[in-house]
Amino acid sequence: MTFLGNSERTGVCARELSGLCGAALAMGFALLAFACGSADDNDPEDKQCSFPEGERGTPECQRWHAAICAWASECGTMTHCECVDQASAISCASEAEATRCAEGLESLACSSPPSGCDLTDIADRAPARAACERYIATVCARQDCTGVDPATCAADGALELDCSTAVGVTPSFEQCITELETLACTADPSSCDGVLLFDF
């Protein structure tokens, strides 16, 4: 029984989570948007993506999503679409910090990003951790697919998938859970691709 392997996905540090129901589920990891790149790396043709329906967070948190992705795209740290995929999964732990960071990102140059405003800095981790635990429980409940009892499956899954490092949950999470509960063991639901973001 294997929960995790390693892969690279469009420049994003990623793991493959082999769902025990036969699905190969890519689990994205939150990047530090300020970690690399500069204004010189900016692609003037960087595609602009819309935030998905069900984007996480309050209106002020979503303002921060938009600001950090505009900044990342402008300053060349990641493409706008990559940032949208990740930021839309983040709920903000503090409304005040979301506002501070949005205002800073909207006004500062590429050379001086505001501190404490990255994807992993501002995230409310509790919902992501709960979703991670629910994901493992859902996969392991399908004993017809896993071939092992749910308790053993969950214990092994918790060793390989560290839910304490989860930081985000994509808007497709509920659809992913529903499909894992109902689809055939051989199904590979696309709603589960990159459904959780981690920081490690």
Describe the overall structure.
With about 200 residues, this protein is of the alpha+beta class. It folds into two domains: about 5-30 and about 125-200, no CATH class; about 40-120, no CATH class. The protein is about 40% helix and about 10% strand. The protein is built from eight helices and five strands. The chain has helices at about 60-75, 80-85, 95-105, 120, 125-140, 145, 150-160, 175-180; strands spanning about 5-10, 10-20, 25-30, 165-170, 195-200. Strands 1-2-3 form a three-stranded antiparallel β-sheet, with no helix packed on it. A hairpin with a 5-residue loop joins β2 (about 10-20) and β3 (about 25-30). α1 (about 60-75) runs antiparallel to α2. The two termini are about 25 Å apart. Residues about 1-40 have low confidence and may be disordered.
Question: What topology emerges from the helices and strands here?
Answer:
Layout: E1 7-9, E2 12-18, E3 24-28, H1 59-75, H2 80-87, H3 95-107, H4 119-122, H5 125-141, H6 143-146, H7 150-160, E4 166-169, H8 173-182, E5 196-198
Antiparallel strand pairs: 1-2, 2-3, 4-5
Helix pairs in contact: 1-2, 1-3, 5-7, 5-8
Instruction: Tell me the strand order in the biggest sheet.
Output: 1-2-3
Write down the domain tally.
2
**Tally of helical segments:** 8
- Rg from alpha-carbon coordinates: 17 Å
- Rough shape? elongated
Tell me the major beta sheet: 3 strands, antiparallel
Structural category is: alpha+beta
